[in-house]
Design brief:
By secondary structure, the chain is mainly β. The protein has one domain: Lipocalin, CATH 2.40.128. Helices cover 8% and strands 34% of the residues. It has two helices and ten strands; from the N terminus they run H-H-E-E-E-E-E-E-E-E-E-E. The strands form two sheets. Strands 1-2-3-6-7-8-9-10 form an eight-stranded antiparallel barrel. A two-stranded antiparallel ribbon has the order 4-5. The longest helix is centred in the first third of the chain and has 10 residues. The two termini are 23 Å apart.
Length: 205
């Protein structure tokens, strides 16, 4: 893995960077409680998407329910038609938790890609009840035309995104919801981490 989080450790003593605490790491966020992750989400700031461009991140779903989709995955960021977009790659599940390898599943010589999304800031989105506590965060919105056919179900996903360590784009904390038909019907799915980034090897488009 080409890029790692800024320090080693098992539990961060504070919340967002800038509070005087040691920087968060992939491992310390993975070991944190839901309450701690929520506080980090509330205390941190949105990413600058220009600093994500061209990178792919190793992702890890914090909640056990995410076994349904796989706890490990990859998420890449690449501009298309003047807009910052993202996509997911399917990864072999190695039962090593947030450690081990992120080995991409291939088909016809290419990674299996799915789950496309656009990147924005919640502050720039039309207001809705789900967004009220998270006006300061970034936003991954999967309701895009690229998710079609058997991938239509991805369109219900909405992610809130922050940098746990201010200005450090090598590590992100995200919170995923399913928005089912009506803006008031929102189901929490999981917190997830993005880290260990490296340059994109297989271009998505």
């Amino acid at each position: 893995m080409a890029e790692t989080t800024p320090a080693d450790g098992t539990e961060g003593p504070g919340t967002a960077a800038g509070s005087g605490a040691e920087p968060w790491t992939f491992a310390s966020l993975a070991a944190a409680s839901r309450d701690t992750l929520e506080q980090v989400l509330l205390d941190s700031t949105a990413p600058d998407y220009s600093k994500l461009e061209g990178y792919i991140y190793c992702g890890w779903n914090h909640e056990w329910v995410a076994i349904i989709s796989g706890r490990k995955f990859k998420k890449g960021f690449r501009r298309k038609d003047g807009q910052t977009l993202g996509y997911n790659e399917i990864v072999h599940q190695d039962n090593a938790g947030y450690e081990g390898e992120w080995r991409v599943r291939m088909k016809d010589g290419r990674p299996r890609q799915l789950g496309y999304f656009r990147c924005s800031l919640i502050a720039d989105e039309p207001p809705q009840p789900l967004f009220r506590p998270y006006q300061h965060t970034g936003h991954f919105d999967y309701s895009v035309p690229m998710n079609r056919g058997i991938h239509l179900p991805f369109r219900v996903i909405r992610d809130f995104v922050v940098l746990p360590n201010a200005g450090d784009h090598s590590l992100m904390l995200c919170k995923a919801y399913f928005q089912l038909g009506f803006r008031r019907l929102n189901i929490f799915y999981c917190y997830f981490l993005l880290g260990h980034r490296e340059p994109i090897e297989h271009e998505p488009w």
